[in-house]
């Protein structure tokens, strides 16, 4: 009989329906309910994307299912079986719920991984802290993957997407070398730089590796989706970057949101709707690379680092 190894697959979470938007937003705000105006704005964003709320949660569910299939297809351990459990930061099943589910199934050894390649103590570090605390309480020995931002298969998958979209610009009459590639990721409070956090450096390393793989020099990094708080966040924001590029007479822009691994609100609204609207105002063509979602290379990236962590 094979020993079951739990895999806690963690991500930010998203509501499953418009009715769940308010409790979801309240959880993000640490128990402080949003104002009616804030709630309406967020609901409007969900309603604006194609399909509304529902495909967002399905994207993560599909990734977890595909990862479990990949783990057991490539499993190098004849006496082990990997079983994936979902743990979300701001929606059910919460991270603690995922650990409880593992304990309920009799699992005593597990690995935790976040669906985000780049480590920050304010993001992935927080996921790990919650999972560690619950695992200790449940009697589960748990190891963690901290980052995988330079895994060759991840770089290959991202590079293929960038190259494919650059080809579309060329087909439309643009010069490949004149298309500005903007690599982007979710902004975080700027104080992480003073803390020696590796988040920004890892994102730049991923961007550089992808650019080199594709063979492009006309690229830069920008931030997006900053929180609306009083403290400064990392910038410049992509909307400001687009305005600057317009002054430089850049006409064609390809966004590669390497900090995101699936189609979520920050991609489908912040880029596909908000950024595209600004680009249109500026008479600029803006396209976005396809998200990784359940791409086999991404699933193999996750499997590789899980196996490696298990072996260590």
Characterization of the model:
The protein is an alpha/beta fold and 312 residues long. It has two domains: 3-148 and 295-311, Rossmann fold (3-Layer(aba) Sandwich); 152-288, 3-Layer(aba) Sandwich (Rossmann fold). It is built from eleven helices and eight strands. The strands form two sheets. The protein has a four-stranded parallel sheet with strand order 2-1-3-4, sandwiched between helices. Helix 3 crosses helix 11, helix 6 crosses helix 7 (199-214) and helix 6 (152-171) packs antiparallel against helix 11 (296-311). The radius of gyration is 20 Å and the shape is globular.
Features:
11 helices; Rossmann fold; 312 residues; 46% helix; alpha/beta; 4-stranded parallel β-sheet
Report Rg: 20 Å
- CATH top level label of the largest domain: Alpha Beta
CATH topology category name of the largest domain: Rossmann fold
**Shape from CA axes?**
globular
The number of helical runs is 11
Which bin fits the share of residues in helices? 40-55%
- What structural class do helix, strand and pairing data support? alpha/beta
Overall average residue pLDDT: 96
Number of domains: 2
Order of helices and strands: EHHHEHEHEHEHEHEHHEH
What summary fits the major beta sheet? 4 strands, parallel
CATH architecture of the largest domain: 3-Layer(aba) Sandwich
Terminal CA distance = 23 Å
Provide the low-confidence segments as ranges. Answer: none
* Beta-strand residue percentage: 15-25%
| E-strand count | 8
Reading side by side through the largest sheet, how are the strands ordered? 2-1-3-4
